[in-house]
């Protein structure tokens, strides 16, 4: 299992769910992905850590009625200074949705929005560096922005995080996708979704969670109280599907081989 001791600056480092019903959705995720949970705090300070085989993999905070946001997963980028990035985001045409805030000894975070409205967290680590495991079943395997204003946000993120891009050549001039590279490593992607996002669905970041069997995970999600949003479909990167949890937060899964599969002959 690929463990991570720290996250490189400018790369995705954490995901957490803002949920209006933490008690309701905790068994949904633990049952679906084999996570264990550990809870601390109360009320607005309530937070759940999810672990996969003892390694931190995701979190969940309370989404209060006055937040103005629907239940949703938030992606965080590792940064040296939450204050500096928040200021840079505003100067580059974005907004600060949550001002830089200290979270005990773990670190500091802020939530920004790009010029097209997609929300993204930034994390200045102290004692909590982020993911302890990635690229495995039950862990994040990829991160992606679906945007209606590709050119504007491409420039925005290059300015704020110093990202560089590599176009994905599919031979289809109407399909625009670029992978983000940090020190030569592909870390996430930007997708021009101007022609595919349904009306009323805002531009957004989302994580793909790994699963050994996409169809089985989708069936389990429905049995646990989720709703199927997109039936499974095959890509060269794996079999993908999308569903919502019991309070409506969207989840995307992608098939990934298990270690046993990779070691099997043939």
Automatic annotation (TrEMBL):
Protein name: VOC domain-containing protein
InterPro entries recorded: Anthracycline_SecMetBiosynth (IPR052164), Glyas_Bleomycin-R_OHBP_Dase (IPR029068), Glyas_Fos-R_dOase_dom (IPR004360), VOC_core (IPR037523)
Naturally occurring in which organism (per UniProt): Hoyosella altamirensis
Domain of life: Bacteria
PROSITE patterns: VOC
Segments forming domain VOC: 11-125, 139-256
Pfam families: Glyoxalase
